[in-house]
Amino acid sequence: MNLDFIKCYSEYLFKVGYQEADKFKNSKIPNILYKYFPCSENRINSLSRQELWLAQHENFNDPNEFKFMYIDKDKFENARLDRNLRILSPFYDDNIFRVEYQDAKKVMEKAKKIVSVSCFTTDPQNDYFWTNYANNHNGFCIKYNINKKDNFYPVIYTDEKLEISDILKTIIVGFKKIIQDEDNLMKEFGRSQNIINYDLLTYTSFLYFNYCCKNLKWEKEDEYRLVFPHSKIQSSKGKLIPYDTLDINANKIFIGNNCSDENKKKLIEISKDLDIKYDFA
After folding, report:
1. Is residue 204 within 8 Å of 10, Cβ to Cβ?
2. CA angle at residue 84 from 83 to 89, to 5 degrees?
3. In this structure, what are the phi and psi dihedrals at residue 92, rounded to the nearest 5 degrees?
4. What are the distances in angstroms from CA 103 to CA 51, 77, 108, 228?
5. What does DSSP assign to residue 67?
6. Strands 152-154 and 32-37
7. How many Cα atoms sit within 13 Å of 82 on the Cβ side?
8. What string of DSSP letters covers 103-133?
9. Is 264 exposed, middle or buried (0-12, 13-18, 19+ CB in 10 A)?
10. CA dist., res. 250 & res. 51, Å (int)
11. Are residues 243 and 250 in contact, defined by beta-carbon separation less than 8 angstroms?
C-alpha cells in the first residue's frame, strides 16, 4: 500500500469515525496470510502449542522502523486541540490542557512499548522470504486464516514522514481528561467507571500506522502486520500469544526443501495433530 491508503483511511476516520474507518481498513486485509519461520525448537514448539511470537519494536532489524510519525517542537507548542476538547476547556483545570514537548516525546516512545507486532505476507512461494526468513529453505511457512481483522494493518511503503502534533496533543489531553473524570466519579459516587471516549479511539487507531510503515525499497514484500495492544508497558523482547486470542488459525504448513529430516518429521506430526495439510516448498 502507499500513502493514498492512509489518506482514504483518514477521510473515514476523522469525518465519519473509527468504526467506519476500520471497516474500510479491514476490507483491504486478505482472508489468508503467510508467515515464514526458521526451524528453531522454539518456533516448532510454538506452532505445536498454536501460539505466535509477537515482537517489541526494539527487535526489528530496520533502524527506520516505527519512525514514520514525528512531532516538531515549534508545531507542537502551537498545536490545536480537537474541537470537542476545546469547547470543554472552561469546565476543567488548565493543567489538563498543558502538555510539554518533552513529555509528548516520552509518550510517543512509551506508546511503542504497549504494542507487540508480527509480520505477514501474501506469497508462500517467495524465494526472498525463504532465503531471509526461513533460513535458506531450512525453515517452514504457515498459511493462516485471518478470522478477525481488527488488529491487522497493511504496511505503507513510503520515504515520507508525517508530522502529528495536533493529533498527539489531542490524545494526551483526552487521556488526562478521562483520568480527571474517573477521579471525580470516585469522589462523588465512591466508584470509578471505564469511560470510553470514541474520539480518542479515532486518534489512537491512527497512531497504529506508525508501526506499519516501511521505506519504499521494501515495497515488493507486500507485508501486513498484526499490531496487538497490551494493557501495560512491555519490558520483554516480545510475547507468545495464543492463536485464539489473535483470532487466527493455522491452515497449512509449507516445509522448506532444505529442512532436515528430523524437522520434517516434527512438522508433519504437528500437521496431523492440528488436522491441517502440509506440502513441500
Report:
1. no
2. 90
3. -130, 160
4. 36, 12, 9, 24
5. -
6. unpaired
7. 20
8. HHHHHHHHHHTTEEEEEEES-TT-HHHHHHT
9. middle
10. 10
11. yes
pLDDT at 13: 79
In sequence order, the 6+-apart residues with CB closer than 8 A to the CB of 131 are 137
Tens digit of each residue's pLDDT (9 = 90 or more) over 84-115: 667 666 667 777 788 889 988 888 888 888 88
The residue whose grid cell reads 506469497 is: 123
Q: How far is CA 101 from CA 73, 117, 185, in A?
A: 6, 27, 30
> What is the 3-state secondary structure of the chain?
CCHHHHHHHHHHHHHCCHHHHHHHHHHCCCCEEEEEECCCHHHHHHHHCCEEEEECHHHCCCCCCCCCEECCHHHHHCCCCCHHHHCCHHHCCHHHHCCCHHHHHHHHHHHHCCEEEEEEECCCCCHHHHHHCCCCCCCEEEEEEECCCCCEEECEECCCCEECHHHHHHHHHHHHHHHHHHHHHHHHHCCCCCCCCHHHHHHHHHHHHHHCEECHHHHHHCEEEEEEECCCCCCCCEEEEEHHHHCEEEEEEEECCCCCHHHHHHHHHHHHHHCCEEEEC
Residue 90 grid coordinates: 472552561
Q: Look up the pTM and report it.
A: 0.85
d(CA 139, CA 281): 10
pLDDT tens digit string along 134-163?
999 999 999 999 999 999 999 999 999 999
Amino acid identity, position 134? A
Q: Which residues of the chain have pLDDT under 70?
A: 84-85, 87-91, 178-203, 231-235
The CA-based dihedral angle spanning residues 58, 59, 61, 63, taken in that order and rounded to the nearest 10 degrees: 0
